[in-house]
Amino acid sequence: MRGLTKEYVLQRFLMYLLTIWMGTTLIFVIPRLAPGDPVSEMVGRLSLDAGYIENADKLIASWKARFGLDAPIHIQYLRYWGNVFRLNFGYSLSHFPTEAWSMVSKALPWSLGLLTVATVLSFSIGVTIGSLMGWRRTPRLLQMFLPSTLTFTAIPYFMFGIMLIYLVAFELDWLPATGAYSRRVDPGWNLPFIKNVLSHAILPVVSIVLTSMGGWALGMRGLMISVNNEDYFLLAQVKGLSPARIFFRYGVRNAILPALTALALGLGGLISGSILVEFIFAYPGTGYTLYQSIISQDYTVTQAIANLIIMVTATSVFLLDLLYPFIDPRITYKRNMR
Amino acid sequence: MTETARGEPLLQIRDATMEFGGGFLSSQPPLVALDSFSLDLHESPAQITTIAGESGSGKTTLANLVLGFIAPTRGQILYKGADVSQLDRKQRLTYRQEVQAIFQDPYEVFNPFFRIQHTFNLVMRHFPLARDKAERRELIEEALNVVGLRGDEILEKYPHQLSGGQRQRIMVARAYLLRPRLIVADEPVSAVDASLRAMILDIMLRLRDEHGISFLYITHDLSTAYQIGDNMIVLFQGITAETGDTGRIIENPQHPYVQELINSIPVPDPKIKWDTNIRLPAEETMRTQGAEGTASGCRFYQRCPHRMDICLEKQPPLIPVEGDHAVACYLYEDGNEE
Amino acid sequence: MAVGQRTVDEETTPARGWGLNTWDSPWLNFKFLLGVAIVLLILLFGLVGPLFWDTDLAYTGAGPLNKPPVWAEGGLPEHPLGTESNGRDMLAQLILATPSSLKVGFLAAIIGMGVGMVLGSIAGYVGGWWDHVIRTISDSAITIPALVVLVVIASYVQMTDTTAMALILALFAWPGPTRLVRSQVLTLRERSYVRMAHLSGASALEIMFVEMLPNMLPWLAASLTGGISAAILGATGLEVLGLGPTRVPSLGLIINQATTNAALVRGLVWWWLPPIIILMVIFVGFFLMTIGLDEIANPRIRQFSSSRRERTAAGELPAVGLVDDGAGGEEDAALKVNDLHVHYFTPRGEVIAANGVNFKLRKGEILGLVGESGCGKTTVAMAILQVVQPPGRIVQGEVRIEDRDLVSLSGKALRQVRWRDLALVPQGAMNSLNPVTPIREQIADAILAHESIGRVELEQRILGLLNDVGLPERVISMFPHELSGGMKQRVCIAMSIALNPQVIIADEPTSALDVVVQRVVAQTLLEVKERLGVSMVMIGHDMGLQAQLVDRIAVMYAGNLVEVAPVESAFAEPLHPYTQLLIESIPSIKERKPLNVTEGLTHDLRDPPPGCIFQFRCKHVEQICRERRPALVERDKDHLAACWLYEPDRHSLIELEEA
């Protein structure tokens, strides 16, 4: 039995649905457990700002009706689910009549691009460093130098980001501090624009990569050390294989499997961190839009983005899970005898 | 074994079946680890009853059932006439006290976190063995004397500070402290060196002869069973293949499987080489549960040199050959007997 | 088990160090202690600070605006760390903010750990449906991006104080500990000592807390410190976004106020930098604790780190009666081992695992190398193959195949000899095959490392090898986990003969197999050997199996060879008392005999006694045995023994010395 089995796919799919259900339900339930309701609070705040609002009660009632907040909670929940499924989150409150979805979809590519690049870089660099650190045959000089690459591991991304902005953007003025591209370039598929986008992406990517790769490296180091002690690793040496082949086919190939699981489990954390990075760098991705929507009390956009991020995360984890049996042939194999 | 007029058996196993797996999201049928197993053990005279079998024979499952770690899927385990799964508090305490165990690995038996003392204190705390501290100490000392150790030598030490032989003997002393009627010895000597093996087997014999303790000796090693065992049951894939007096089975095995097993034991004499003409089974036929032809019939069918059509139809019952000696093989059915 | 084995084992087994004296305790890990010190220091700053500094200065209008720290130009002594745009004193703000950040972290992580321990133990201990449900939920929950949900929650629910925030953060702090506790309980549950405790009448709760908990402490602690920093990160994240409690100062809130007031652009470094520095120090502290605890929990990592600081001095070599010629054999040796010494440099002393081992493997023979566990037989095998694992090292000796000494070879030269001239049949039923690659690739690996042949030919050759050991062709594309123990072992045999080597080292090739399979595999090995005429060293502990398989037998005790003889004469007329003991204690199915009870290895391998190494167990011990080590010399035709009993002049030898 190799590759995907029906049992495995079904199980993973159930977990996929469960993840989405839990995340979105938390978002739905917890605000409703809190005293007051968003609409009254919002109208209250509006009246604070404006001094006085005519027919505040009517306004509250009509907004409640528009957002369906007057229905009993289970009906609200069902509707909410229907909307989540159809990716229909209604209109943005602060940018009426723009649909919430269209605002989100504008932000999504920026985030996906930033995160994909950052994740791939941090995981691959981290795994490489960790593998070398956990291998007995790594040259002594390299072995001594490698731990220094982990200097920033303990620091949260966004703090590192602030320091980078201060040092690289303000003090040294090497790279732009905020945004995804400058106003002076025309968006489109032209070289100046692409160059501009890349130069804006460097600092956010660097702040994520430098601070997160150490985690992968340390994990990988431990795994590699375990593999070092395995019988098959010893046999590979005795077979007279080249060090490179032993390192990759016997060492990394085995040690990376749990690291991939860790990647799937850590994806949520990575995405969480990127919200703050986008905030610090005013990078117009989902995280920044989420922040903006909260500041402007644009609840529909907030919900749309939060749900979307949860779904994207769950989907990535699900895809990683589906990939896994092809990398580790043991995963879908059930032993016949015990 | 036939019922003799020796009163109520100490331990009685009635048609115990143990299945693992199957169930939710499982595409495979459950694995039958033990199939309709029956056994009567009498209190006196104390005997060493060997349960012999290879890996997958169900012998460890049987040990776990008798010790109450798992409950049978079907069937009953009776201790002094009471069903082990339905004991009241008092009966349960008696059962725990009187049915004890010694295990295979002398390293793993002691919690590395505690001094050896802890092992004995644990027992003392849960069973009403002694009234005061002095009496406790006396009892522990006495139990240690039985295995040739002294309290002040070992009680304050940590497990890793003792030799393998000491650990193994302490484990026996711990069991003895409870004055059990039955000790389940689960491969007590298969991981130890020759010198230690003799020591443990010797202690088992002494406990049987001097203290009237019965043993369920669970092993894959027929030669040690031959040295110390009284009765024997040979299991094959969860089924009793042959049962009777140890000496008689080993000197004159009847079941084709038991014959194969005994022929495979290397003779410790370079002048008597293995009979190379003997037909040995192909590897693929060794994991056959659920395989073609064995679903309802004899599980040894695929490997059996004497297989007949009837063997495919129904699992052969235990057929008595002489006295207590019985074989689950159609070769010995009336009319078939040579 | 013998002492040598144990001393080496101790380094690789986690909890073996518990009971040692305090200075040996694994908890004395530098990184862990440094981390603890750092966190304590920060905590002290927050706790003691209010006693020395007026914290009322932390509120708006307490002082002049935007004053730099005292050491900068324009700084005021009454505001040593300066003030920000609302006139708040930075030092007072930091003193108030630091403990509240730590409090949130501890509270959330402890709640998460508590929930995790309950759920994890239920899942691991009760199992079945409970396990299924708890595992599925925690595995799903762990992948939810916590901050997103937190941000949304925080945007609706105005968090008034840190406790409320900690409670909400705890929603995401339980899945990690749950997973950890579950897997730990599942492992520990199968430990014999837990089953023993069960048999001693301990209740499930008692087993959980008394037997299991102490043994998972390092893991739990690592998870807790990791959880605390994750919770602090979450809280700070919310605060930085301005979504945390706004009435009390917190480190994140200061950063939020600084960034929203454009402190970066305005050059107000003293506003945004200090909270970041404090947070970084906190994170570094917890990070150090976490990785320190990882090392405590996982001794392999600890050992790996320390093996690079391996001591180099080999120390004085004990005087050994050396036979120049090696044990037995004249010219036609396939392999010569000369005066081989292997030591393990453990923190608790130098273990002498092989002490001047000499033997020759004749062409076409099988030489059995036997002894109890820890006698050094596997060490000798590993030394022949040049794969002694640290902290072990060959400190002296030669391993010769033809005219090359393998000990002196390294790099490419050594790789060329490996497998082509010297192959290994490992305990294949265990873990000797790479679990993620098909059999084809593992055999091809060995061939292609030494020869360059085409794909078709390679495939044919591998199929031929599988056929040689009686395996069907389809095995070629199977994975190790799809094979039974016996089949895996035969794959290993097929692999070993791939390059038709001169010498094969077989390390307990059948010892993990059932008896019938053992016989099938042993016969395969014999057939292969006969057909190829290869010479073989067969490591083993089962004297019965040795009697069936080998031509000559070499008996090892405590790192020394004590007897080398043709197998027939070794069994018929064993000379060394230890060999006699081994043969007497073989359980037989041919005759019932009285049990021969003796002690195991009685001396410490770090400190071998002067004289004969077997003196403490020997029935025939004499004065000379306690003083001088006997040499391995020929006592009968082709029969060597290291024992004074066969030395007629032994009494005069000792008198001579005394005179």
Helix and strand pattern of chain A: HHHHHHHHHHHH
The whole-angstrom Rg of chain C is 34 Å
Backbone structural class of chain C:
alpha/beta
Q: What structural class is derived from the secondary structure elements of chain A? A: mainly alpha
Mean pLDDT of chain C: 83
Specify the biggest β-sheet of chain C: 8 strands, mixed
Shape designation of chain C: elongated
User: What is the overall pLDDT average of chain A?
Assistant: 82
What low-confidence regions of chain C span 5 or more consecutive residues with pLDDT below 50?
1-23, 308-329
Helix proportion of chain C: 40-55%
Most residues in contact, chain pair and counts: A-C, 87 and 85 residues
Q: Helix count of chain A, per DSSP? A: 12
The count of helical stretches of chain C stands at: 24
Q: How would you describe this structure to a colleague?
A:
The complex is a heterotrimer of chains A (338), B (338) and C (659). Chain A has 338 residues and is an all-alpha fold. Helix content of chain A is 72%, strand content 0%. Chain A has twelve helices and no strands. Chain B is 31% helix and 20% strand. Chain B has eleven helices and twelve strands. In chain B, the strands form two sheets. In chain B, strands 6-7-8-3-9-10-12-11 form an eight-stranded mixed beta sheet, with helices on both faces. A four-stranded antiparallel beta sheet of chain B has the order 2-1-4-5, with helices on one face. In chain B, strand 4 and strand 5 form a beta hairpin. Mean pLDDT of chain B is 84; it is low at 1-5 and 288-293. Chain C is an alpha/beta fold. The two termini of chain C are 41 Å apart. Mean pLDDT of chain C is 83; it is low at 1-23 and 308-329. Chains in contact: A-B, A-C, B-C.
